[in-house]
Amino acid sequence: MSLNIQEQVSMRPYNSLAVDVRARFFVSVASLEQLQAALVWAQQQGVSVLLLGGGSNLVLTADLQVLVIHLQLRGISILSTDAEFTRVAVQAGENWHAFVLWSLAQGLSGLENLSLIPGNVGAAPVQNIGAYGVELKDHLESVLVFDRETALVQRLSNEQCQFAYRDSLFKRESGRRVILSVIFKLPKHASLQLDYGDLRGYLAEQQISAPTPHDVSRAVCEIRAAKLPDPKRLANAGSFFKNPVVTSAHAEQLQKNYPHIVCFAQADGQVKLAAGWLIDQAGWKGVRQGDAAVHAKQALVLVNHGAATGQQILALASQIQADIQQRYGVELEIEPNVIG
Ligand SMILES: Cc1cc2nc3c(=O)[nH]c(=O)nc-3n(C[C@H](O)[C@H](O)[C@H](O)COP(=O)(O)OP(=O)(O)OC[C@H]3O[C@@H](n4cnc5c(N)ncnc54)[C@H](O)[C@@H]3O)c2cc1C
Predict the structure, then answer these.
(1) What positions constitute the catalytic site (predicted)?
(2) Candidate list 112, 166, 168, 217, residue with the active-site label
(3) For residue range 264-291, what is the model confidence (pLDDT) as tens digits?
(4) Does residue 1 surpass a pLDDT of 80?
(5) Nearest CA to ligand 1 atom 28
(6) Atom 3, ligand 1: which residue's CA is nearest?
(7) Which ligand 1 atom lies nearest to the CA of residue 174?
(8) Co-location of 331 and 247 in the same domain
(9) Ligand 1 centroid, distance to 182 Cα (angstroms)
(10) CA distance 20 to 29
(11) Which of 34, 35, 57 maximizes ligand 1 atoms within 8 Å of its Cβ, making it the mutation to test the pocket?
(12) Are residues 42 and 102 in the same domain?
């Protein structure tokens, strides 16, 4: 098995925050056999491994003394179809948004609210990607993984993946399981989720009274493009903080002091707060320290104007976290994976 292992590779093109650190070793793998060979090679060299998809959820803080394995397994196949559902297997290296568009073109629904999320299918289960009231877990049947601890290929059911808000088994036991492919169970008859964010308002504005999944996808793309910076033009990693969840008593107290605070009641009685609102109200929107900055239009997004390091971006994030803790008594957790 021949592997093209490169040395001292700049990671700048491989992370959406465009942080310029070097990987000591770098290899692209397009099959399970190549992945296994790369893992054996890393073990023989005594270096650890970083799994890489599209690099849109990473903060790289130092040169990486590891083997970066860029997962490039490709392919989409229909496994079965009946009157209600189609089951589809998608390889880890497929681009997420391209797959969403493919599913819509097949007349399938369920993923329209997750349109335009950057990255690859293989990383989507890691943080259970979510947007506009839909999460990956709502349409995922199972995941095929290579378990590095047992050296076995294993299928994990939706339940076994232990999905939660921006969280999963894969995030909690980071690096142990390499996701090879994901099986989705997608409905043929759309049941649209429109009750989140600006979606319903946007469709009304466009005078679309009976939207199709395509309409919802287009609406999500336009709303996202207006709100979020395109990483190709302004480097960023999407939402930098998770929306914090607090007790109802804490939320009530905050509502007394801040009547316009944005809250979402949770099924378990707790309350999710909009992190972007807290950061915006605290005056951080547009704050720039060197090339690290809070986006001028969206307080939840930290951006790199050119030469910011991962450390500088994290230093800005720490100041925001300390300020939000002091003002509101709320702990903000960083969403992207910090590596270095
Ligand atoms: C502009 C922008 C908007 C965004 N909007 C959203 C949003 O609305 N909702 C949302 O949930 N996220 C959002 N994100 C975050 C990001 O798009 C997702 O987390 C996405 O799933 C990351 O995919 P990736 O391939 O780029 O992962 P990477 O950044 O390459 O990797 C992320 C993590 O997964 C691990 N990993 C990667 N591939 C595999 C694999 N095959 N097996 C096991 N582990 C793996 C990596 O080691 C790393 O820990 C946004 C990001 C950006 C830049």
Answers:
(1) 166, 239 (proton donor), 335
(2) 166
(3) 899 899 999 999 999 999 999 999 999 9
(4) no
(5) 55
(6) 238
(7) 49
(8) yes
(9) 15
(10) 22
(11) 57
(12) no
Task: Identify the residue whose C-alpha is closest to ligand 1 atom 32.
Answer: 57
Structural domain count of the chain: 3
Q: 88 and 60: one domain? A: no
Name the average pLDDT for the chain. Answer: 96
Q: Give pLDDT tens digits for 198-212.
A: 899 999 999 999 999
Please indicate, yes or no, whether residues 157 and 87 belong to a single structural domain of this protein: yes
- Whether 128 is covered by a domain: the verdict is yes
Using a pLDDT cut of 90, give the percent of the chain over it. 96
Q: Which residue, among 22, 58, 18, 60, has the nearest Cα to 306 in the 3D structure?
A: 18
E strand map for 148-297: 152-157, 177-187, 235-239, 245-246, 263-265, 271-273, 288-289, 292-294
Mean pLDDT, range 6-23, rounded to an integer? 98
What is the domain-level CATH number for residue 141?
Answer: 3.30.465.10
At 330, the amino acid letter reads: V
Tokens of 149: 């601890």
Residue with tokens 């803080």: 61
Find the domain containing 137 and state its range: 76-187
Q: How does pLDDT run across 83-96, given as a tens digit for each residue? A: 999 999 999 999 99
Q: Assess whether 181 and 87 both reside in one domain.
A: yes
Number of residues that make up the chain: 340
d(CA 142, CA 181): 9
Residue 218 placed within a domain: no
- pLDDT tens, residue by residue, 117-145: 999 999 999 999 999 999 999 999 999 99
